[in-house]
Amino acid sequence: MQMTTRPIPSTKEALPVVGCGTWIGFDQRPGTDEYKRLPGVLDALFAAGGTVIDSSPMYGRSEETTGELLAAAKPPTKPFLATKVWTSGRETGIAQMEQSFTRLRTKEIDLMQVHNLVDWRTHLATLRGWKEQGRVRYIGITHYTASAYDEVEAVLRAEKLDFLQINYSLDARDAEQRLLPLAAERGVAVIVNMPFGGGGLLRRLRDKPLPAWAGEIGCTSWAQVLLKFVLSHPAVTCTIPGTSRAEHMADNAAAGAGTFPDAAFWRREAAAIRT
């Protein structure tokens, strides 16, 4: 079963709902056992119909690794490359973003995001110009902690953006209150980072038996259950669980197919999962 796609609000372009985050997992050097596993991760992503690969200059060697792997892989479909700018100052930001083009081995980046809102006014001004020139296709902002949500909300209200990347998971649902509804209202696509709540929730659940209803919603693992929860929110466009193992990528991608339960379903079941 192929992965579901959802439209990017600003263009209606279809985007597969499960991608791959590269934090930690892709920060590997050629020749290591960890690096040798990574081509299989991308193979699993593409085989399932996924395209989104998200990175950042703050992720160590991850951008460079991604560029190397894609150059060798010759993927069957064009990857949707997302990365970030994470520095202060116009010229410094331009230099960092130029470095991302080099590391990713591409002349066009699909999505450039201002990482954690660092000097966002400066970088958004640069990115709007680059978008007009065709160097980047979409622009956005990111964050990963609820303490920053007031500022994230203010930027969402004040600026015209294509994407918001934010944390959201079964045990970290603050984004439901204002950010996800506001993104939908403003026509902004949402990429969810940390869909496993940083990993702690998934680790707690792994040794527990799956509930009987898991099969009814097409899930064969706890990871799929947690991803189905995230993808069940109507404002969410895509989620990017990070992994360095092909079997985990294939398992994650499977959550992007089939049906997604409604809010009433999760109200009945979510409390039992968290305990």
Structural class by secondary-structure content: alpha/beta
Strand order in the sheet with the most strands: 3-4-5-6-7-8-9-10
How confident overall, as mean pLDDT? 95
Task: Detail the poorly predicted runs.
Answer: none
Assigned CATH superfamily: NADP-dependent oxidoreductase domain
β-sheet strand percentage: 15-25%
End-to-end span in angstroms? 32 Å
Instruction: Could you tell me the CATH topology label.
Output: TIM Barrel
DSSP summary: helix tally: 10
Which CATH-level-2 architecture?
Answer: Alpha-Beta Barrel
Q: In the residues, how many domains can be counted?
A: 1
Helix content: 40-55%
Cα radius of gyration in angstroms: 18 Å
Q: Major β-sheet, in short? A: 8 strands, parallel
What do these coordinates show?
This protein is α/β, with parallel strands linked by helices and 275 residues long. It has a single domain (5-274), classed as NADP-dependent oxidoreductase domain (TIM Barrel, Alpha-Beta Barrel). Helices cover 40% and strands 15% of the residues. The protein is built from ten helices and ten strands. Helix 1 crosses helix 2 (62-73) and helix 5 (149-158) runs parallel beside helix 6.
